[in-house]
Amino acid sequence: MLKTGSIIVCAAVLAAIAGPWMTPFDPAAQLLPMRLAGPTAAHLFGLDELGRDILARVLAGARISLLVGLTVVTISASAGTLLGALAGYFGGLFDDAISRLIDILLAFPGLLLAIALVAMLGPSLGNVLFALSIIGWVGYARLVRGQVLRVRELEYVQAARAQGATVVRILWHHVVPSALPAVAVQATLGMAGAITGEAALSFLGLGVQPPTPSWGTMLNGGRAHLMDAPHLTIFPGLAIAILVLGFNFLGDGLRDLADPKRAERGDA
Amino acid sequence: MARYLVRRLLFTVPVLLGVATLVFSLIHLVPGDPVQSMLGEGASPQDVAETRARLGLDRPLLVQYAGFLRGLASGDLGTSLRTNQSVARAIGERMPATFELAFAAMAVAVLIALPLGILAAVRARTATDVAATTLALVGISIPNFWLGPLLAIAFAVGLGWLPVSGRGTLAHLVLPAITLGAPLAAVLARMTRTSVIEELNELYVLAARARGVSRLRAIVRHAFRNSLIPIVTVIGLQFGAVLTGAVITETIFAWPGVGRLLIQSISFRDYPLVQGCILLIAVTYVSMNLLTDLLYGLLDPRIRYD
To answer: What is the span of the domain harbouring residue A136?
Structure first.
């Protein structure tokens, strides 16, 4: 799984970087007389409702998806790790406040809060990043808080405390590193979640706005042409599914690596 | 058990209050003047002032908040700006469609996931298991906003077997239910596999086999029955994913439920209706989680809320 996932993700990153050299067509260039034309040797994925090359747009969309995934995961993982570590280490009122906030945010299923936030703030890439990060940090905070609660009373942490190490040093050098393997797994699966989340919001018209090529926006555009041009729907969706599958494979593989007992049991 | 019940219920109260507070504050996140945003730039100052007064947005924030909570307590979620209909009534009219879709999707998920999960478990670490596990991971990775249109292309446009949109007959329900149920089926299949594998390794299953109980009977009557508790829990906890998925699925298939109402009200900037839909979905989710937790405590006496 780890190998398959790594290959898919590396291929997607390469395609995103090398996209402009992989196809001679500009993702924004319109060939109106050929609008909705199906796949041909020249246009492997066909053309969309404005005569734009779908392959060029899928490759440009990969950049948006990976950018969203990386940004959301970086912000969520950093904020979640910091807040979870502080809550777990200090306990008390701060822990109570963070834990209640987590409970409240978890009361909104999946993307609902992101939909609500973007609906109010207005559709844009920046607001999508903000909304996905607001719901994203919670998972990391819960995970790290649990790990910190487990290790904060262990002897090596107490020894560091007895030697007069500062709180920052204890957290940075002794406590947080123990949570990092789990955070890495969560971050990999979080990439899949953020990419799907951005595509879902864009599909609903709440995310990246046309003419910027996002996979979700492309799928939204394809809805009006299911009957006459199904290729508008097939290729961007396939790109999302393959990239998300790659990150899920990678996340599952990393989880098995971090927890060999789990892999031995054959947990799914 | 009574103590567990009371503590679990008490834990839910602050969460619901937090949800209500967050939903209340949503309208204040609108950049600039929310009323001007709702009515558009061309609205007259008189219309803007009237709407602001109607929504109570001209009052101090704390008074607005108290009024919002009072309204919730009496089931008053405000009035839709576009239709002038009560928000609670508008949502109430759409609820049956959403629940119909959600339960059909869960039925689809259970019908696919249980046989697949059990098959993967009894054939663990074989080609069948790898195929079933990979299929489940593929299912999780396929977003419903792609699966829905694909099913529509194949079964409505291509084969002409099923209608592509609307609600009314059983045929209308098939594609939306599969679209919404497939990702849940994938999650459930993985959970079923893990749970059944764990039970198959227990001594009582070995003892049953030693007594001469057939392999099939040992799997179905012994291992599977005992692995049902975590599976039921996952079904309950996944209800939230189904509700969010319904927002997308209802939009794809023009299914007249709360999810579609939410997206329509967003496009019309009907903020009271948006707040109502969000609140209702969140409260339903919290209630389902509460019910699942209580059921879990009831089914397994070892589980208690500490």
So the answer is: 2-265
Question: CB–CB of A268 and B263 under 8 A?
Answer: no
A239-243, A262-266, B35-39, range with the lowest pLDDT: A262-266
Tell me if chain B has a CB within 8 Å of the CB of A93. no
DSSP letter for each residue of B40-101: -TT--HHHHHHHHHHHTTTS-HHHHHHHHHHHHHTT---B-TTT--BHHHHHHHHHHHHHHH
Measure in Å the smallest separation between the Cα of B270 and chain A Cα atoms.
Answer: 10
Q: What percent of chain B has pLDDT over 90?
A: 49
User: Please, which residues bridge with residue B79 across strands?
Assistant: B86
Distance from CA of A13 to the nearest CA of B (A): 18
Taking residues B227-253, report their average pLDDT.
86
DSSP label at B142?
Answer: S
pLDDT of residue A263: 60
Residue B56 to chain A, least CA–CA distance (Å): 18
Chain A interface test: which of B122, B266, B280 (most A C-beta within 10 Å) = B266
**Cis, bond preceding A211 (omega within 30 deg of 0):** yes
Question: Contact B148/B248 with Cβ under 8 angstroms?
Answer: yes
Residues of B in contact with A234 (CB under 8 A): 150, 153
Q: How far is residue B244's CA from residue B152's CA, in Å, rounded to a whole number?
A: 20
A184-201 residue pLDDT tens: 999 999 999 999 999 999
DSSP for B144-191, written as a single string = HHHHHHHHIIIIIIIS--S-SS--SSHHHHHHHHHHHHHHHHHHHHHH
Q: Inform me whether the pLDDT recorded for B306 exceeds 60.
A: no
Inter-chain touch A107–B286, beta carbons under 8 Å: yes
Partner A contacted by B126 (CB < 8 A):
no
Q: Which residue of B has its CA nearest to A228?
A: B157
Q: Residues 6 or more apart from B193 whose CB is under 8 A from it? A: A268, B117, B118, B120, B121, B124, B129, B132, B133, B136
Tally the domains of chain A: 1
For residue B60, count CB atoms less than 10 angstroms from its CB and return exposed for 0-12, middle for 13-18, buried for 19 or more.
exposed
B15·A252 Cβ contact <8 A: no
Dihedral sign, CA of B141, B147, B148, B149? Answer: positive
Instruction: Say how many CB pairs under 8 Å bridge A and B.
Output: 147
Evaluate if residue B297 carries a pLDDT over 80.
no
For an interface test with A, which of B28, B116, B137 has the most A Cβ atoms less than 10 Å from its Cβ?
A: B137
Percent of chain B with pLDDT over 70: 97
Please check the confidence at residue B55 and state whether its pLDDT lies above 90: no
CATH number of the domain enclosing A243: 1.10.3720.10
Asked whether the beta carbons of residue A112 and residue B244 sit closer than 8 angstroms, the reply is yes
Residue B18 near residue A103 (C-beta atoms within 8 A):
yes
